[in-house]
């Protein structure tokens, strides 16, 4: 049934993602799906193969090039939430790149008592030292955006900060953000 002014959405309770009714329903759906997946005779083989790929110590730290640096977001057993880091291109070309940690999400989550999940970054056009980091509390679709100074490796005090929302942004110039939000 379609929602109208006269007929409210019967599933509106699902919008309360942390609500008891929504969480109970989601857990029931997850249990139903998990039973179906784990009941397949191929499950263990496929699960173990996928896990081996994800935990492989020799995986390539893919990154983005910017101003002579390779930027990378890295997660492993030590950095569960992840590290946003960078290495000079020449160093990246070696077997042991000299990574500079820009932001440790495990440390930030503990400091701010939030369940931060990395959602991405948008930086000013080169040359520029400012980026907008997108972080989600708990992995929700809605995220916060916070301005980050690459040279200081910290968030900008009094800088751009967008509250939690489903949004997108891009830099027009070093002092102007274009924002689309709900």
How many helix segments?
4
> Unreliable segments (pLDDT under 50, ≥5 consecutive)?
none
Which structural category fits the helices and strands? alpha+beta
Secondary-structure element order, N to C = HHEEEHEHEEEEEEE
What is the overall silhouette?
flat
Q: Please indicate the percent range of residues in DSSP E strands (runs of 2 or more).
A: 25-35%
Largest sheet report: 5 strands, antiparallel
Mean pLDDT: 92
What is the number of E strands? 11
How many distinct domains?
2
Distance between the termini: 25 Å
Helix content: 10-25%
Radius of gyration: 21 Å
Which descriptors apply to this entry?
alpha+beta, flat, single chain, 2 domains, 4 helices, 11 strands, 182 residues
What does this entry look like structurally?
With 182 residues, the protein is of the alpha+beta class. The radius of gyration is 21 Å and the shape is flat. The chain is built from four helices and eleven strands, in the order H-H-E-E-E-H-E-H-E-E-E-E-E-E-E. A hairpin with a 6-residue loop joins strand 5 and strand 6. The mean pLDDT is 92. The chain folds into two domains: 12-54; 64-181, no CATH class. The longest helix is centred in the N-terminal third of the chain and has 19 residues, at 20-38.
Short description:
With 182 residues, the chain is an alpha+beta fold. The chain contains four helices and eleven strands; from the N terminus they run H-H-E-E-E-H-E-H-E-E-E-E-E-E-E. The chain has two domains: 12-54; 64-181, no CATH class.
Topology diagram in text:
Layout lengths: L19 H19 L4 H12 L9 E3 L2 E6 L8 E6 H4 L7 E5 H8 L3 E8 L6 E8 L5 E7 L4 E2 L5 E5 L1 E7 L2 E6 L1
Antiparallel strand pairs: 1-2, 2-3, 3-4, 5-6, 6-7, 7-8, 7-9, 10-11
């Amino acid at each position: 049934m379609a929602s109208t002014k006269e007929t409210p959405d019967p599933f509106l309770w699902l919008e309360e993602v942390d609500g008891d009714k929504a969480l109970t329903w989601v857990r029931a759906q997850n249990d139903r799906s998990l039973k179906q997946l784990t009941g397949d005779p191929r499950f263990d083989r496929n699960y173990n193969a996928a896990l081996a790929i994800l935990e492989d110590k020799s995986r390539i730290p893919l990154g983005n090039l910017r101003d002579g640096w390779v930027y990378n977001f890295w997660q492993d057993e030590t950095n569960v939430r992840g590290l946003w880091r960078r290495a000079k291109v020449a160093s990246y070309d070696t077997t042991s790149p000299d990574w500079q940690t820009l932001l440790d999400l495990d440390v930030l989550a503990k400091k701010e008592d939030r369940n931060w999940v990395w959602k991405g970054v948008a930086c000013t056009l080169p040359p520029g030292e400012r980026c907008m980091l997108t972080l989600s509390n708990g992995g929700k679709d809605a995220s916060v955006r916070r301005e980050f100074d690459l040279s200081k490796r910290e968030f900008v005090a009094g800088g751009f900060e967008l509250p939690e929302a489903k949004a997108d942004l891009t830099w027009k110039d070093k002092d102007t953000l274009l924002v689309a939000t709900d």
